[in-house]
């Protein structure tokens, strides 16, 4: 049974940083790609970043210079380092793999 547990969200001022974590279990973590997806209030979910099993990563253009995705196969965890946060980054952030979703972690960027 795939389980994904996100953490690390919170309230941060514009320009600040947060590091999100997603702990995965119940599947062969090293064999699958993992996504970070976000959903802003009143909007649909949008892909933010992907970490592939071969070590490659992709970041969507709208956060490319500010966010970094990484994975740790030793702890079955993926991370999303978010820097220079903007109010428009406010959303619930989810990790996603094999059709499963975590419960999400709220990120609020506000002064």
Order of helices and strands: EEEEEEEEEEE
Broad structural category: mainly beta
End-to-end C-alpha gap: 40 Å
Give the percentage of residues in beta strands.
Answer: over 45%
Give Rg in angstroms: 13 Å
Q: How many beta-strand elements?
A: 11
Summed over residues and divided by their number, the pLDDT gives a mean of 95
Tally of separate helices: 0
Percentage of residues in helical conformation: under 10%
Largest sheet: 7 strands, mixed
Shape: globular
Unreliable spans: none
Describe the structure.
The structure is a single chain. Helices cover 0% and strands 52% of the residues. The protein has strands at 3-7, 10-12, 18-25, 34-39, 45-51, 57-59, 67-72, 77-82, 91-97, 100-101, 105-109. The strands form two sheets. Strands 2, 4, 5, 6, 9, 10 and 11 form a seven-stranded mixed β-sheet that branches. The chain has a four-stranded antiparallel β-sheet with strand order 1-3-8-7, with no helix packed on it. It is globular.
What is shown here, in short?
The chain is an all-beta fold.
Give a topology summary.
Blueprint: E1 3-7, E2 10-12, E3 18-25, E4 34-39, E5 45-51, E6 57-59, E7 67-72, E8 77-82, E9 91-97, E10 100-101, E11 105-109
Parallel strand pairs: 2-11
Antiparallel strand pairs: 1-3, 3-8, 4-5, 4-9, 5-6, 7-8, 9-10, 9-11
